[in-house]
Amino acid sequence: MIEVRGLSKSFGTLKAVDDLSFEIKEGEVVGFLGPNGAGKSTTIKMLTGYLAPSGGSAKIGGLSTEKDIQAIRQRIGYMPQDIPLYDDMVVIDYLSFIADVREISPGERHGKMRAAAERCGIEKVIAQSIGTLSSGYKQRVGLAQALIHNPDILILDEPTSDLDPNQIVEIRNLIKEIGQEKTVILSSHILSEVQATCGRVLIISEGKLVADGSPEELLAREHRDNIVHVTFQGTELQAGAKAILEIPSVSAVTEKGEGRFIVEAKKGFEVRPDLFHLAVGRNWVILEMRAEQLSLEDVFRKLTMN
Fold first, then answer.
1. Contacts for 96-102 with beta carbons within 8 Å, 24 or more apart?
2. What is the pLDDT of residues 160-198, one digit of tens each?
3. Which structural domains are found in the chain, ordered by start?
4. Using CA atoms, how far apart are residues 110 and 104, in angstroms rounded to an integer?
5. Residue 165, Cβ neighbours under 10 Å: how many?
6. Chain centre distance of CA 84
7. What confidence tens digit (pLDDT) does each residue in 226-241 have?
8. Is 0.70 surpassed by the pTM of this model?
9. Do 224 and 291 contact (CB within 8 A), yes or no?
């Protein structure tokens, strides 16, 4: 559905996007991640035809963004981070305005406006001024304008920014529902949202692709099974740490208080059986023992921090 090959964009001496290549298949919901200034928004603007690339190419449904951008725009629904809403417009008038912009025929207009309003759950505010709406409903109106022409691809740039936790869950569920029938690219700084919503993640840093895979695959690549968190009941810290260090495979022990330790084994060693036998031999009660679990945020920081 989306094919990017060697895409680059420079602003003077600044290279915002640098030889970026990836493919997105029809029906995928893809998280597009990167720190501020990584080139996410620049890439999205090139895919949607708002910016011309300095090099490389991009195709949407087999159509070139260089030659066929008007046809591509008919297939894309775009919700930018700063949604172009007009506070003094009534919601239904705003959707009618977007229908004009999208050149939806008079015969189809009412049906498509109604379908977008129902899909995004804004029927009960359809007669209100946009300026009177909550942030959550404004985001829903933004989604409705992106969906009004029933596009094949939906590109969402920070769709839950400035929302409270309840509103985030509502928009997240809506995106997951839409993702069952459309190809979705979701750019967000809320990594838990991406992990809960997207089946695949692309991470870019300094304009380059640094990771591509499902959230589970990215976590598996960066696993830290050699680090174990363990808590023993009633164990004196210094004596406990000294005993743990006597295990041949242990390289370091960090005392965390109240019998809690972080045990780092040498690479390639599984230290939990040895910790168990040590506890049995010294009559220590194990309250907790688990391998350290990385979050998507941990992986993101590792891949994008210089």
1. 98/145, 98/148, 99/148, 102/74, 102/148, 102/149
2. 777 778 878 888 888 888 888 889 999 887 787 788 889
3. 2-220 (3.40.50.300), 222-302 (3.30.70.100)
4. 10
5. 8
6. 22
7. 889 999 998 888 889 9
8. yes
9. yes
